[in-house]
Amino acid sequence: MEWLWKLVEALVVKIFGLSMESRLGGSIHFFIYDVIKIFILLTVLIFSISYIQSFFPPERTRKILGRYKGITANTLAALLGTVTPFCSCSSIPLFIGFTSAGLPIGTTFSFLISSPLVDLASILLLASVFNWKIAIAYVVVGLVLAVIGGTIISKLKLEKYVESFVYSNKILEVDQGELTKKDRVDFALEQVADIIQKVWLYILIGVGIGAAIHNYIPEEIITALLGKDKWYSVLLATFVGVPMYADIFGTLPISEALVAKGVGVGTALSFMMGVTALSLPSIIMLKKVVKPKLLFTFIGIVVLGIIIIGYTFNIFGHIFI
Fold first, then answer.
1. Half-sphere exposure (Cβ direction) of 192: Cα atoms closer than 13 Å
2. What is the pTM of this model?
3. What pLDDT score was predicted for residue 308?
4. What is the DSSP string of 54-102?
5. Is 290 helix (H, G, I), strand (E, B) or coil?
6. SS3 call for 139
7. How far is residue 134's CA from residue 153's CA, in Å, rounded to a whole number?
8. Alpha-carbon distance values, 260 to 27, 40, 186 (Å)
9. Would you say 273 and 306 are in contact if contact means Cβ atoms under 8 Å apart?
10. 173 contacts 8 by C-beta, under 8 angstroms
């Protein structure tokens, strides 16, 4: 969006009378440009994704997944997660519904990992912030993590660690009928309004933190803590990200600023994946429906996968930049 960059630059220089070379001018430009860019992309992308999603309501998704078993089911669940962009918390009711409907828990967990971690909007936003190589690689490793995670849980035979009430919670079968084009457009517009209402504050906070990192925190401090040469940077980024609650739209500006300061791509992506795939509220909610052994197995698999992905991106980061 070069036109937007120049427009905001003119605003900062001519209207605000600030130099782009100054910290304040650079921070204001970063903040205004990224906020407008993300909201434009978000509006267009969520509308498009929601229109597609209208063809895959939870009940239809459950029926599709119910036809397959084994790694095929895990793979399909991970792929369906990309077109059903639920956050880590909203995926929990789907876990209950899918499991009570008789789907293997491994298949359900593949969906549970993929849905908040990888969606079409995040792919395009990643490409706009970094590049298409990183965006495509992120999607691939996210799907691989979802498939492997669900497969491991299936092999471990952990069904007995799901709370008994989940299996007795029957889904109400509803005939949704054939939606018209207007129905789908209305649904997409409602989703745009609903999602923006939920994430706007996280976007402002994320962009604000990104602007501060980009212009006020010295590069020496950032690289001293999370530099490419620090063996623990991925571990630190992952464990800092996991307890947080946000989505990719709020964490992308932070990751962008970290990479600009010399932080490895893998470290920045580990932070982003930790925030989106796992969050304290979602873990608390999941604790209500599964027993500790299954909960910690799920957390351990996802955290370990994120760490491996982070180190892999750092080692081969030169390929993607």
1. 19
2. 0.67
3. 93
4. TTS-HHHHHHHHTT--HHHHHHHHHHHHHTS---TTTHHHHHHHHHHTT
5. strand
6. helix
7. 28
8. 14, 23, 39
9. yes
10. no
